[in-house]
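Can anyone check this?
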Amino acid sequence: MELPFEPILLGYTINIHLVLEYLAFFLAFRYYVFLRKKREDYISSNNRLSIILGAAAGALIGSRLVGVLENPLVTFSTENIIQILNIKTIMGGLFGGLLGVELAKRIIGETKSSGDLFVLPIIVGIFIGRIGCFLSGVNEFTYGVETEFFLGMDLGDGVLRHPIALYELVFLIMLFISLRYLQKEYVIQSGELFKFFMLTYFGFRFFIEFLKPNTFFILGLSTIQILCIVCYVYYTKFIILKIKNARKKI
């Protein structure tokens, strides 16, 4: 199979990445519904709906904003503004979704942790989407730099490159298995699973970005890597606050 994979149906070229992206949303949501039915949800249905809406709004804004910032040298014009606004990234979606959830919870007065139920469906969704990224080859900015490494692949431009999407697919399988094991074998506090997922995934993405032909324009880091640092700072802040509150209670 040659990359990019562009199947033709009834005379039309199918955007395989877009198809798998919609499939990822659908299957991830169905998996979430399945998991919610299997376990008791301590958050009411109305509040859960508000949280989902907050996550969706935050993810939409975050994915577009970070997607635009990933291309800092692009020239804005009336001709390409729509194309630029259609650029999106899962990293911005995840962090934007996190902020959207926190804002929604503050508005509705919900204090319980809400992220754990989303973790495995999110991984499934990212996994399906990354298959689309791989099949799109160099048509999607998920390919790596040129390499002589034995895993190098021709992704459609005649050059051996790091298949970043494949690396991530392997990582996501390992992460899914690890989190499922952690969930089944250990008693963890509510919210900790989501935090572990975010820190692990963002840590992976920080290092894998060095294998992409990025624009490293601030401190030798790409926009995604800066976002990864922001995510770690965000969670460090909450860990410090929890420690301080615990000391006050003592």
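Reply from J.R.: I decoded it. The mean pLDDT is 85.
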